[in-house]
Amino acid sequence: MVEAVDKRKRRVRHGRVKERARILVVGGGYVGMYTALRLQRRLKRELDRGEVEITVVTPDPYMTYQPFLPEAAAGAISPRHVVVPLRRVLDRCRVVIGEATAVDHAKRTATISTLATEEEGTGGERLTYDELVLAPGSVSRTLPVPGLAEHGIGFKTVEEAIGLRNHVIEQMDIASSTRDPAIRDAALTFVFVGGGFAGVEALGELEDMARYAARYYHNVQPEDMKWILVEASDRILPEVGEEMGRYTVTELRRRNIDVRLRTRLDSCADRVAALSDGARFPTRTVVWTAGVKPHPVLAATDLPRNGRGRLKCTAELTIEGTTHAWAAGDAAAVPDVTAGKPGGECAPNAQHAVRQARVLGDNIVHALRGEPLTTYTHKYVGSVASLGLHKGVAHVYGRKLKGYPAWFMHRAYHLSRVPTFNRKARVLAEWSLAGLFKREIVSLGSLEHPRAEFELAAGGKPSQDPPHNPKGSS
After folding, report:
1. Residue 4's pLDDT band (boundaries 50, 70, 90)?
2. Phi-psi domain of 29 (left: phi exceeds 0; alpha: psi -120 through 50; beta: other)
3. Kind of pairing, strands 332-333 and 311-312?
4. Domain-by-domain residue ranges, the chain?
5. How far is CA 51 from each of CA 17, 46, 94, 339, 439, rounded to the nearest angstrom?
6. Per-chain mean pLDDT for the chain
7. Multiple choice CATH, 20-140+293-368, 3.40.50.2300, 3.50.50.60, 3.40.50.10730, 3.30.160.270
8. Percent of the chain whose pLDDT exceeds 70
9. Among 199-213, 249-263, 397-411, where is mean pLDDT lowest?
């Protein structure tokens, strides 16, 4: 008796049975989304014939365009327009909302925890694959600073960006209504740790927003607020060059922002930011943007990693010493073949991640078709950074720009890079409207605890403390 052939898993072509290629993409960020997008375009016919299956496992149903997080926090862009819905963009892929908790590449299996895993009580789901793309991205790199876990605020997700915006406006509300000078001073003191893109842009945009919002408070002036940037090294924004970094420090200090170089945050316990230079600032706001580290799932795999915990990769974006395993982006240590010296690696930034994803997608297609692989080569063209409305710095193709031209280039560049025409049009429309109307300075802090008011009305005890300003402010 001839064994039945599962038509979903096998196809008969030219008189022979061919296994269906199952491609598993772990991660829905830059690399995950762009790789899957490239695959579904290049493998359109194979997908139609059922010869290929692409599964994307991601903890969120959207990809966040992180360069727009500071503007989202400042209210210049709607949070919905900073994210790209994966199910709409990857319409030929199977999108699974969950996280990979372990990968056994020797057995070609990945253990997945989904939203239903805990309720089912059956443990993680095991997915089998033929080709693996491991692109879980990175997580915030924290240090054992006392009080950081209890009082620190991250700035890596759209939820954190909007939460920080609500928090800043809420602190202004507290300062406006309190009679206690100590509470007022702590509410109007904002400490940012980390002088990279995330920290500098977030501080610049939020200080600009708060300065504008102060005009609507009868007893809060811009000079009442203290904005402090703490950086452990001797420079900020190293990506834009030393000269532009020095200009940025001068520009921030001109706005009465306290920039402290060669300084660390030693503690933020009891809502007091204690710095390594001896300064102490009572504060209700400590924003931590001091770098990232590889996703913890990499440690739960049998794949080779380097000393920093990133996957060892080849210039073709395969994982060293393995077959049918690929990686790129923050999780991958990709050789920089343009560096001119051995041992150089591509920087883990968005510019490389997007370009690596295209090569990675193409190389998987080449591998499936038995074609030669392509080497990833890309010359770093420069960087741009926004410091608030109409303020910025840029170092692109050897040219150094500052002020309005740099800010305009920042917007133009990222508008061209944000995925999908839909998002481009919406962001451009919001920017255009912002030039005609006043800024939105509404805090919707109650969104963070939407059931608090109903639980109180129903006679229950809120599961989390309700925000200080449950109705928002304007």
Report:
1. very low
2. beta
3. parallel
4. 20-140+293-368, 148-290
5. 11, 5, 14, 39, 51
6. 88
7. 3.50.50.60
8. 92
9. 397-411
Helix axes 197-213, 242-254, angle to 10 degrees: 20
Report residue 25 as tokens. 């993409």
| 3-class state of residue 346 by DSSP | coil
Residues in Cβ contact with 410 at an 8 Å cutoff, skipping those fewer than 6 apart: 384, 385, 386, 392, 394
Residue 468 has pLDDT above 60, yes or no: no
Q: Are 163 and 155 in contact (CB under 8 A)?
A: no
Angstrom CA distances, 329 to 133, 304, 366, 378, 440, stand at: 11, 16, 20, 13, 35
Span 30-34, mean pLDDT? 94
Domain 148-290, CATH number (from 3.30.1330.10, 3.30.70.100, 3.50.50.60, 3.90.226.10): 3.50.50.60
How many residues are present in the chain?
474
Q: pLDDT: is 204 or 11 the higher one?
A: 204
Torsion sign, CA atoms 85, 89, 92, 93: negative
Taking the CA atoms of the chain, what radius of gyration do you get in angstroms? 24
| Cβ neighbours around 256 below 10 Å, total | 13
Positive or negative: CA dihedral 60, 64, 66, 71: negative
Tens-digit pLDDT profile for residues 95-132 = 999 999 999 999 999 999 998 887 777 778 899 999 99
Helix-then-strand count for the chain, H and E: 14, 26
Quick: pLDDT tens for 363-399: 999 999 999 999 999 877 778 899 998 899 998 877 8
Tell me: pLDDT of 346 over 90. no
Contacts for 137 with CB less than 8 Å, ≥ 6 apart = 27, 29, 30, 31, 32, 295, 329, 330, 331
Same fold, 20-140+293-368 and 148-290: yes
